[in-house]
Amino acid sequence: MGPIEFGGQGGQWLRGDGADSDIVMSCRIRLARNLRNYPFMPQIEADAAKEAADLVKSKVMGSLFNEDGQYLSVNDLDDIDRMYLIERHLISRELVNGEGERGVAFGESEITAVMINEEDHVRLQVIFSGMELDRAWGEAQRVDGILEKELNFAFSSQFGYLTACPTNVGTGMRASVMLHLPALVMTKQIEKVFQAVSKINLAVRGLYGEGTQASGDFYQISNQVTLGVSEASILDNIKRVVPRIIQYERNVREHLITENRNSLEDKVYRAYGILRNARIIDTEETMNLLSAVRLGVNSGLVEGLEVEEVNRLFVLTQPGHLQKRERRTLDPEERDIARAKFIRTRLA
Amino acid sequence: MGPIEFGGQGGQWLRGDGADSDIVMSCRIRLARNLRNYPFMPQIEADAAKEAADLVKSKVMGSLFNEDGQYLSVNDLDDIDRMYLIERHLISRELVNGEGERGVAFGESEITAVMINEEDHVRLQVIFSGMELDRAWGEAQRVDGILEKELNFAFSSQFGYLTACPTNVGTGMRASVMLHLPALVMTKQIEKVFQAVSKINLAVRGLYGEGTQASGDFYQISNQVTLGVSEASILDNIKRVVPRIIQYERNVREHLITENRNSLEDKVYRAYGILRNARIIDTEETMNLLSAVRLGVNSGLVEGLEVEEVNRLFVLTQPGHLQKRERRTLDPEERDIARAKFIRTRLA
User: Fold this and answer.
1) pLDDT of B7 above 70
2) Read out DSSP for B40-74?
3) A156 — phi, psi (to 5°)?
4) Do the Cβ atoms of B275 and B289 come closer than 8 Å?
5) CA distance A9 to A344
6) Which residue of A163, B61, B83, B295 has the smallest Cβ count within 10 Å?
7) Distance between CA atoms of B181 and B216, rounded to whole angstroms?
């Protein structure tokens, strides 16, 4: 088992607080930055990549995090540790699949994380629980400002920040909001949301970002374009559309409770009953059942269970977390058994 | 709502005791008898049928049951009361669907019941919990002896007892054993049992007798032939085959527990969890889930729940019982909600 200490309950973004947190799980600002004096990824030579990583790491750890921060070199991590960090949204699959010296620095609350030598030299992210996009943007600006003083970022007065992939040139920003939309899924109205969102140049992704399937009825809405638009207009675009999706989901929830309370309660409590009783359960089923329970808690149908606990279970039941907890590699069947046992303990 | 008082928890046969009661729910002896001096059903005129019914009723109530017995005329009952009696195995669908004066007399324990003017003038049944065929046969003989003294039964020295349908001529006896065979169903070996049983002239039926589907993994094994065989040879035939089916089911249960304990526990506890949490549940799903829980209790996987309670729930959750309990007619959706609530209360 790798060097990471098993880290408690997951980041601040799972706390289930902040605005509209019954529907908005979290929101995230990501900024892509590159060092002016080094070749961009992946053209950079191994030695230069190591030098760039060391430079960014020393500045980040020195100026950004105090004794509560840690830096992890992906190169030192085994598969389970890597999975574990992906599940916590601290690193991306791309960082894992990359080559050469690369890693991540993050603080204890896991609100701020800096990936080094992913697609770009520097990928700064700030995640908050709830619909707190302005707060996340404020924090991202503050952190970016600190790093700007320490590092010489590649910036063009014509194009803005320069990035490895042209789609990120300009602001280098992706703003995203993770929405929990079980009622829209249940009533098969979620497709309408996708269609509306794609018309205004926003992307919809699953819980684990680009190329992942929606799971647990979580949908991540984010901007597609970074070039030729200001950060403010990206944020405005998302802040205009997200409240409408929230309202749509909320209306359908209310309708379900008014018109189909028994069916809804049945679905919610069956899910809760299975979670508290199953002896073997896979990730996919767990996510779907937790989604129903989360809806139940947020609709006042389930009492005595905090939404924070449900939020955390979405992450703590993932394969990497289960194996970190057990301190050994588990085959899929062992994982399904360990997962069921863990859930029973938590929901007892 | 009809005249029947809601009668507690169902008959002695649900007690979950007697030999091999982990697998044998109950066993039953039925004797078909007819009055020599009246035309057989259904050729009998309405007046004569009434006279015959009154005669049998008075003798049965006078000689067989004391103050703990009751006679119910099917003609006086509404649909829900009729359903209720079918669910308790006190009357048959044929009795309900018949014409003219007809009814049933039974004692408080519901071990002995006499249907009047079903297919035959007299249908005597004795049911006991567990594999207690000799006990049931002994009791049936005793009761038959009492009735023989009071009533003049049609009997031919050549053919034996005469009955309305030729298939019952001779002994007029059907001996049956209700087996709970969840492990054989789960492992898809139940077909082998059917094939073996049909080769030796035994019939396999569902929980509610002729023409009903197997439900809750219950299978009723009974003799096909009554003519030209003695009561003893009918019983011997069943007593030879049933222990082999019991052993087969038991072996598969042990194998499941040894080799697939986690899967089995998972199935059992999911069923238990759904039963304790569902808000809407139909009869079929209830039977299937109770079957898994019954297997769990009998295999020592579920503690703190008596098999008797599970047995009784199979009957108490049926539509007639639910509506008797609620004292009103319920539409199917209301029943499914009332059923779920009732089960939650019982299994809380």
Assistant:
1) no
2) PTTTS-HHHHHHHHHHHHHHHHHHT--TT-EEEEG
3) -115, 135
4) yes
5) 16
6) B61
7) 9
Give the whole-angstrom CA distance, residue A341 versus residue B202. Answer: 45
Q: Where are the domains of chain B?
A: 12-254, 260-347
CA dihedral B115, B120, B125, B131 (to 10 degrees): -140
The dihedral through the CA atoms of B85, B86, B90, B96 has a sign that is: positive
- Chain A residues inside the 8 Å CB shell of B282: none
Phi-psi region of B141 (alpha: psi -120 to 50; beta: other; left: phi over 0): alpha
Inter-chain touch B279–A272, beta carbons under 8 Å:
no
Q: How far is A331 from chain B (nearest CA, A)?
A: 15
With left for phi above 0 and alpha for psi between -120 and 50, is residue B209 left, alpha or beta? left
Count of pairs with CB atoms under 8 A, one residue in A, one in B: 48
Give the separation between CA B173 and CA B126, rounded to whole angstroms: 11
- This prediction has a pTM of 0.92
Q: ipTM score here?
A: 0.91
Q: B241: which 2 tokens?
A: 């085959």
Percent of chain A with pLDDT over 70: 96
Q: How many Cα atoms are found within 13 Å in the side-chain-facing hemisphere of B313?
A: 31
Which amino acid, one-letter code, is at A54?
D
| Share in percent of chain B as helix, strand, coil (round to 5) | 50, 15, 35
Contacts of A262 in chain B (CB under 8 A): 279-280, 337
Question: From the centroid of its chain, how far is CA B159?
Answer: 28
Gap between the Cα atoms of B319 and B81, Å rounded: 11
Beta carbons within 10 angstroms of residue B238's beta carbon: 22
d(C-alpha A38, C-alpha A52), whole Å: 7
pLDDT by residue (tens digit) across A71-83? 999 999 999 999 9
Which amino acid makes up residue B163? T
Taking CB atoms and an 8 Å limit, are B276 and A280 in contact across chains? no
Rounded CA gap, B245 and B72, in Å? 37
Task: Please check whether residue A272 touches B, CB under 8 A.
Answer: yes
Rounded Cα distance between B116 and B92, Å, is 11
Domain B12-254: top CATH class: alpha beta
Structure tokens at B325: 């309990």
Nearest by CB to residue A277, choosing from B270, B281, B340, is B270
| DSSP-derived secondary structure letter, A5 | P
How many Å apart are CA B220 and CA A88, to the nearest integer? 55
CB atoms near residue A237 (< 10 Å): 18
Taking the C-alpha atoms of residue B129 and residue B19, their distance in angstroms, rounded to an integer, is 8
Place of tokens 């389970």: A80
Q: Which of B266, B278, B281 sits opposite A279 (nearest CB)?
A: B266
Q: What is the pLDDT along chain A (348 residues), one digit of tens a residue?
A: 555 666 678 899 999 999 999 999 999 999 999 999 999 998 999 999 999 999 999 999 999 887 788 999 999 999 999 999 999 999 999 999 998 999 999 998 999 999 999 999 999 999 999 999 999 999 999 999 999 999 999 999 999 999 999 889 999 999 999 999 999 999 999 999 888 888 888 988 877 665 566 689 999 999 988 778 899 999 999 999 999 999 999 999 999 999 999 999 999 999 999 999 999 999 999 999 999 999 999 999 999 999 999 999 999 999 999 999 999 999 999 999 999 999 999 998
Strand ranges (DSSP E) for chain B? 24-33, 70-73, 103-106, 112-116, 122-129, 155-156, 160-161, 173-180, 202-205, 218-223
Peptide bond into B42 cis (omega under 30): yes
CB–CB contact A266 B273 (8 Å): no
